[in-house]
Please model this.
Amino acid sequence: MTAYIVRRLLATIPVMVVVALFVFLLLHLTPGDPAAVIAGDDASPADIEAIRRKLGLDLAIWQQFVIYVGNLLRGDLGTSIFSNLPVLTLVKQRLEPSLVLAVSTLVLAIALAIPMGVLAAWKARSWIDRVVMGFSVLGFAVPVFLIGYLLIYVFAIELRWLPVQGYRPLAQGIEQTARSILLPAIALSMVYMALIARMTRASMLEVLSEDYIRTAHSKGVATIVVLLRHALKNAAVPIVTVIGIGLTLLISGVVITETVFNIPGLGRLTVDAILKRDYPIIQGLIILFAGAKVLVNLMIDISYVFFDPRIRY
Model:
């Protein structure tokens, strides 16, 4: 196990190098002169040249890449062009809302989707199965921003149960934070729930047809025990895999959801940076998102052995 983890960690190095190269070239592959785009139409040649020096664009491209990688190794993601603050500082300021939203979405989606998938597999081809599969299709078909606006209209504007938008920090109390994050978490979890529920159903259907499941039933083992202890545990590997794959949807969904609900997190920071052409922020966020995805994939691979002891690395 230890050797496998070390090999996987070493394998992430070339992946992150490729990501860093892509992020670095992002500034240079942009049509036109990035300095002129950032400076605006009314900028003088002196202003454009000052921005070029600030971004290091006056150096040879290989020198720029060496400096960029060196800064990354020191944990320096650059400095924002417009706020003059380090990108890492801006990320820390916006990290809490995004983490709370992501964790809430994960907990909500997993807690509801897995029981839905298990129930649909147990009652296959019944009205319960059709309802769950219909919900899954709907979750994939309806965009996140539309679900968000519908939730705002019903629960915030009409019923006035929850705030329309914004985020209350944890320092103001868990209850206030939960009220402000509930609607965004529900909106973002819909696609995630649909994905997990469909995979759980498919995995469970395959396992429920095995001989040892019929043997457990014939011995008089309670249905709930058969479903959870015997079937779900053996069907867990593909479910955990799809949970990891769904994190890609979660990262992209955070950007849309935070914009709809006006949450000052990393998603809003990404949108604002794109609109302002603040390339250091965009580059830093891509690096962080890619690193998080690589780390999550490693954790999921390691978790396989706990669900299926037959797996050997």
Summary: The chain has two domains: 2-73, 91-307. The CA atoms of residues 6 and 12 lie 10 Å apart.
